[in-house]
Amino acid sequence: MMDKKNHFEVSKLKDYLFVIKENISLIHPAYTNDPLNMYLLLGENSALLLDTGCGLSPLKPIIDNLIADRELIVLNSHTHWDHILGNEQFGEVFVHQKEAQKVSQAYDVSYFQDSPNQNIIQIYANQNFLIPPAEIIKTLSDQDEFDLGGLKVKIIHCPGHSPGSVCLLTSNNELFTSDVAYYGDIFLPKRQEFPLVLETLDKLINLCKNEKIKELYPSHRKSPCEIKLLINFRDAIKNIESSWESKKSFDFFNAWEIGEKTDEFRFFVSKY
């Protein structure tokens, strides 16, 4: 059985910033983007938690211990399973308005029932593979801002990875890129939607240059990163067309696989 006591790895990156890491490969070996990085930002009055993970182990007691008497704001960067399945542990969660309906309903994870990691999957099976949502869902829009007390966090709507994906810009000039950009296995929409992804990346690159941002905090694998992550990622997407004929079908994701595990970026392009 899984050791819930040591499930998360918690690291203090700055006086006001913690990262809580979780390995999503525990659920199915097809997912290789370990670790998932959840972030906790501490202001003088409030704290903000970015994403709630896979719902395999109690996260709230860890967060409660770190925030002391601060008010907690919980925010989903988007509504893919590995970022929201811990929502039910928290009474209220913010999400971009374009994905509010999805995260307001029980989340069906029945596609994991054939995973080879059956001792882990039993946790979902005990809930009939339907993971409850948070009790209250509140919506976000582009440029919304949270004042934590001595630290402000601005919402940047970044569609492409999903319709309601957001990044966070802090008043300390840090950018939390969520799943919009990271090194590793990248999940992209169908080819017709690549221009939207590239538009988002161009927006973030310009933001980094204008705001003199040097630290990027992705939601998977290496963190922190430099602005070259965004530049390299944009260039790699532009090069997909030249590699398209070498694509392979990856049925578990209903996607086309382009690239190798050893590459900076391996792409899974949606077939639908």
Overall helicity: 10-25%
Radius of gyration, Cα only, in angstroms? 18 Å
What is the rounded distance between the termini?
A: 36 Å
Fraction of residues in β-strands:
25-35%
Q: What name goes with the CATH superfamily?
A: Ribonuclease Z/Hydroxyacylglutathione hydrolase-like
The assigned CATH architecture is: 4-Layer Sandwich
Low-pLDDT parts are none
Features:
about 270 residues; alpha+beta; Metallo-beta-lactamase, Chain A; 5-stranded mixed beta sheet; 7 helices
Write a structural description:
The chain is α+β, with helices and mostly antiparallel strands. The protein has a single domain, classed as Ribonuclease Z/Hydroxyacylglutathione hydrolase-like (Metallo-beta-lactamase, Chain A, 4-Layer Sandwich). It contains 7 helices and 18 strands. The strands form 5 sheets. A 5-stranded mixed sheet has the order 1-2-3-4-5, with no helix packed on it. A hairpin with a 3-residue loop joins strand 3 and strand 4. Helix 5 (194-211) runs antiparallel to helix 6 (228-238). 39% of the residues are buried.
Summarize the structure.
The chain has 7 helices and 18 strands. It is an alpha+beta fold and 272 residues long.
